[in-house]
Amino acid sequence: MTDSHFPSKDAILAFIRSSTTPVGKREIARAFKLSGSADRETLKDLLRELEADGTVERGRNKRMAPPQSLPAVAVLLVTGVDADGELAARPLTWTGEGNPPRIFLLPEKKSRGEDKPLAVGDTLLAKLARINDRLYEARVIRRIDGEREGRILGVYRPSADGGRILPTDRRHKTEFLVLPPNRGDAEPGDLVFADILPAGRAGQPQARVIERLGSTDEPRAFSLIAIHAHGIPTVFPHAALREAELAAVPALMQREDLRDIPLVTIDGADARDFDDAVWAEADGDPENPDGWHLIVAIADVSYYVRPGSALDRTAYERGNSVYFPDRVVPMLPEALSNGLCSLRPGEDRACLAFHLWIDRNGVLIRHRLVRGLMRSAARLTYEQVQDCQDGRPDEVTGPLADSVIAALFGAHARLAAARAKRGTLELDLPERRVHIDERGRVAEIARRERHDSHRLIEEFMIAANVAAAEVLERRTMPGLYRIHDRPSMEKMEALRGFLAGIGHPLTKSADLTPDHFTRILRKVEGTSHAPLVSEVVLRAQAQAAYSPDNIGHFGLALHRYAHFTSPIRRYADLIVHRALIRTLGLGVGGLDDETLGRLAEIGDHLSGTERRAATAERDAVDRYTAAFLADRIGDRFSGRISGVSRFGLFVRLDESGADGLVPASSLPDDRYDHDENAHALVGQRTGRTYRLSSPVKVVLVEADPVSGSTLFRLAD
After folding, report:
1. 402 by DSSP, 3-state: which?
2. What is the CATH code of the structural domain delimited by 9-65?
3. Are 24 and 34 in contact (CB under 8 A)?
4. Residues ≥6 apart with Cβ < 8 Å to 27
5. pTM for the whole structure
6. R_g of the chain, CA atoms, integer Å
7. pLDDT tens string 370-403
8. Alpha-carbon distance 647 to 411, whole Å?
9. Which fold is adopted by the domain 73-144?
10. Cα(263)–Cα(372) distance, integer angstroms
11. Residue 244, Ramachandran bin (φ over 0: left; ψ between -120 and 50: alpha; else beta)
C-alpha cells in the first residue's frame, strides 16, 4: 500500500512513457513532488515492480524508459526518404527484438563550411526524442566520418579485382568495389547487405559484405528486395507469437448468436485470410417498403489483440499487411490472420457485426452494432459469385443462388443507385496482376478483372464504414476517420490544362465535386484516352489519410467515413473497433486512455506505413515486370505516353502495363522543350511534339529486374 499523496504505479508509468527521453528517479521525484527517505524507498520499490513486469527497462545511468527504447543520444544510419521527402534513419546497432523504431530526422540547421545535405548511407550522431514506443524524432549533432559511413542493399558480382556490389536502388548509380577479404560468404548473384567503406585507390568506393540474403536467381528475391529496401518488419517477437498461439475462440456468453444466418465470405481466388462476411434480406418492416436489411460481419480482432500487448505493439509497428505477387507480410501472426481471425466456413468465429437497414433508394437509415459469434456458410470467390448471378452456378453457389446470392445483388443494386446519386469519383485504373507459376517465375502479367461481385462487396463495406463513423460522431467518441481532402488549386489548374488539351475542359467552378470529374471520365469512357485520364485525375487528388479530425471523404462524397472492415490487415480498423467497443459498452478490448491521447500521432504513423506498403508493393511489381520482359530485349511494343518530363517520356505498354523511360537524349535529333501545361516535349527546330496519352511504338532496350527499371527507345 502507498500513502494517499503518493502517485499510483499507473501514474508513474504514464510519466515515463510520456517523456521524450529516458528518465531517472530524480526527475520522477521532482515531477510528483516527492521527498524524504520514505518516499524514495516507495518510489524505488514501484520502479522495481515496473521493471519486473516488463513495462519499463532500466538503461544507461539507471534511467527508465519503455521496453526497447532508444537512448537520448545515438549513432544513426540514414536509410531512406519517405513519400513526403523526410529523411528516415535507424540505429547503427540494434539488439532488441524485431525491427528498431522508426526515426525521422528534423531539418538540419545551416552551419559554416557544411553545405553538403544529408544523404542515404550517411552516419551521424543525433539527439533523440521519443514520440511513441515505435517512433522517434532526431536532431543531428554531427556527422561521423570513419570506418563505417553507411549501408547498402545490392547484388554481388565477381570481378577481376575481387567483386562489385550493384545497388538495388535505381537512384543509386555508384558501384562498390569488394576486395576479397571483404566478400564474406557472398556468391555471384547474391543479394547482400554491405557496409560502405572509405574510398580506396583512385577514389573507388568500397564495401564490406555483412549479410547474405539469398540468390537473385531465385525469382522470389524481387519481393525480398522491396521488403528490405523499405524496412518492412518480417519477424514477429516471440512474445507476440506466444500470445497468438494461446488464443482461443470465445464462448457465446453475451455475444449475439449469428451462427444460423448464412453469412458468406467473398474474396479473390488467391486470398488466404477472410475478415469480412455478408448477408442480406428484403426488409419486412412496412415502414421501410422495398428496403433491405444487411449484415456485415467482421473478424473480432480486438478480442485477441489487446491494447499494450506484445501483439498490439508489433501490429502497430507494421501498421498494415503488405501484399506481394509471391507472398504476404502480415500485420498479425498466422495463428490469427489465417486462423482464429479468418472467417472460415463451418467454424465458429468471434465477430463484430453491423446490422444495416437501407431504404428503397439505398440510403442508410439505421444501424445496430453487435458483438457476435458467427459461422460462415461458404467461402466464395468473386468469379464464383458473378458466374452464379449470370446463370452459371456451381456445386457451392447453386444451393445459395436464391437464398443468399440473389439477395446480396438486390441490396447492392440499391446501394449502387445511392452511390451514383451522390456523385462519387469513379476512376478507371487497371490493376496489374502478376501471376507466379509453380517454379516461382512470372507466367503472365494481366489486367485484374472487375465484376459486379467486386462492386457488391465494395458497397457493403462502404456502408459498414459509414455506420462506424456515424456511431463515433453521434456519441462524440474519439477515433480514427479515413479522410480525403479536396484537391489543391494548383493541382486543379494543371489538370484543367491537360483536359483542355485533349478537348474535355473542366469547369472553373470553385465548388468542384467528385461528380465533375466523373462526368469527364464518362465522356472518355471506351476511348484510348480513358486509362490515362483516370490516372491524371487521380494524381490531382489529395492523398487519403487517417486522422481523429473528421473533414469527410471527398472521393466518396461522404461527410463521415472510418475504416472498420479489415482489422486483420489494417491497424486503423482495429482502433475503430476498440473505439466502438468502448463507447457502446461491448466488453473487453476497448480503446484505452493512453491511446485516446495519441490518436493524431497514431493516424500520422498509420498513414506513413500505408504509403510505405504501397511503395514497396509497386516496386516489387516493377521488378517482376522487368524480369518478365528481360528476355525480350529488342522487341517492339505498343504503348502510350504515361508521363512527360524534361529528361524524357514515360511509356506504358498496352500488353503488360509495364512502365519505362524513353530518355530525351534518344529522341529524334532536335532539342526539346518541356511544356508543363500541355504535358508535352516540343522540338525547337522541327516542332515535333510528344504529348501525354499519345500512342507510340517502342523498342525494349533494357529491363533490369534487380532495380526494376525499364528503358525504351522510340521504334519510329
Report:
1. helix
2. 1.10.10.10
3. no
4. 19
5. 0.75
6. 28
7. 999 999 999 999 999 999 999 999 999 999 999 9
8. 51
9. OB fold (Dihydrolipoamide Acetyltransferase, E2P) (2.40.50)
10. 12
11. alpha
